C-alpha cells in the first residue's frame, strides 16, 4: 500500500523522530537503510512486514494478513502518525496492491479456464492484463500462470490487483484515509470478484 505525499521533504529533518516513534519498549526498530531519499523500517509492528518512508511516499508491505481490514487499519494508523511527525497534510495519490493465488485441481483445468483468454487456439495465455474503473478506483488486473512451491506443484494463477485513486490536485490526508477504505471495499466487492471469476473459472 502506498500514499504519495505532497511537500514531504520535511522527512530529511524528521527521520529520527519517525525512528523513535517505532521503538518497542526499549528496542529500537530495525532500519537497514536510511538516506535523504528515504528509509526502510523492518517489522515496525506485528502486522507490517516492511515500511518505507520517503519525501514522496509512505509505502508498506504486508505478508499473509488475516484480512484486508487489518491491512487498512494498520496502514492508516502508520500513515497518520508519520504524516503528523512530518507535518504533511496533503497527498496526491492512494494506491493498494494485492496478490491472490487461485488453485486448480490439475493443470488441465487451469489450461481450459485460461483458454477463453486466448485469441487463437494455438496461442496460450501466460499473462493477461486488464484495466477497469469501478466508481473512483482505477484497477490494473493481471492474471498469470504459476505453480505453487508445494510438493504437488499445485497449478494456480496469480491474481495481481493494483488499485488506486489519483487526485487532480493535492488533497487532505483525511481524504486518503477515506479512500483507503473505498479501495478496500472495491477490492472486496462482488462486482470485482465477478470480473475476476469470469477470467479464471
Structure description:
32% of the residues lie in helices and 39% in strands. It has a nine-stranded antiparallel β-sheet with strand order 2-3-4-5-1-6-9-8-7, with helices on one face. Strand 8 (137-147) and strand 9 form a beta hairpin. Helix 1 (11-21) crosses helix 2 and helix 2 (68-86) packs antiparallel against helix 4. By secondary structure, the chain is α+β, with helices and mostly antiparallel strands. It has five helices and nine strands; from the N terminus they run βαββββαβαβββαα. The model has no long low-confidence stretch (mean pLDDT 92). The radius of gyration is 20 Å and the shape is elongated. It has helices at residues 11-21, 68-86, 107-115, 173-187, 190-200, and strands at 2-5, 30-35, 38-42, 48-53, 57-62, 90-103, 127-134, 137-147, 155-172. It has two domains: 1-88; 96-201, no CATH class.
Amino acid at each position: 500500500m502506498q500514499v504519495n505525499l505532497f511537500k514531504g521533504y520535511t522527512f530529511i529533518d524528521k527521520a529520527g523522530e519517525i525512528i523513535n516513534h517505532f521503538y518497542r519498549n526499549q528496542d529500537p526498530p530495525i532500519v537497514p537503510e536510511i538516506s535523504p531519499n528515504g528509509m526502510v523500517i523492518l517489522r515496525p509492528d506485528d502486522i507490517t512486514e516492511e515500511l518505507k518512508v520517503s519525501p514522496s511516499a509512505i509505502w508498506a508491505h504486508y505478508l499473509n494478513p488475516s484480512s484486508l481490514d487489518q491491512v487498512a487499519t494498520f496502514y492508516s494508523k502508520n500513515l497518520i502518525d508519520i504524516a503528523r511527525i512530518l507535518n504533511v497534510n496533503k497527498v496526491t495519490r492512494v494506491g493498494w496492491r494485492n496478490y491472490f493465488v487461485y488453485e486448480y485441481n490439475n493443470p488441465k483445468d487451469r489450461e481450459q479456464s485460461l483458454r477463453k483468454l486466448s485469441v487463437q487456439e494455438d496461442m496460450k495465455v501466460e499473462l493477461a492484463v486488464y484495466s477497469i474503473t469501478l466508481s473512483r478506483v482505477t484497477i490494473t488486473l493481471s492474471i498469470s500462470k504459476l505453480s505453487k512451491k508445494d510438493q504437488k506443484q499445485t497449478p494456480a494463477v496469480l491474481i495481481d490487483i493494483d488499485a488506486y485513486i489519483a487526485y487532480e490536485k493535492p488533497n487532505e490526508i483525511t481524504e486518503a484515509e477515506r479512500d483507503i477504505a473505498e479501495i478496500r471495499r472495491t477490492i472486496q466487492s462482488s462486482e470485482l470478484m465477478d470480473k475476476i471469476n469470469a477470467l479464471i473459472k
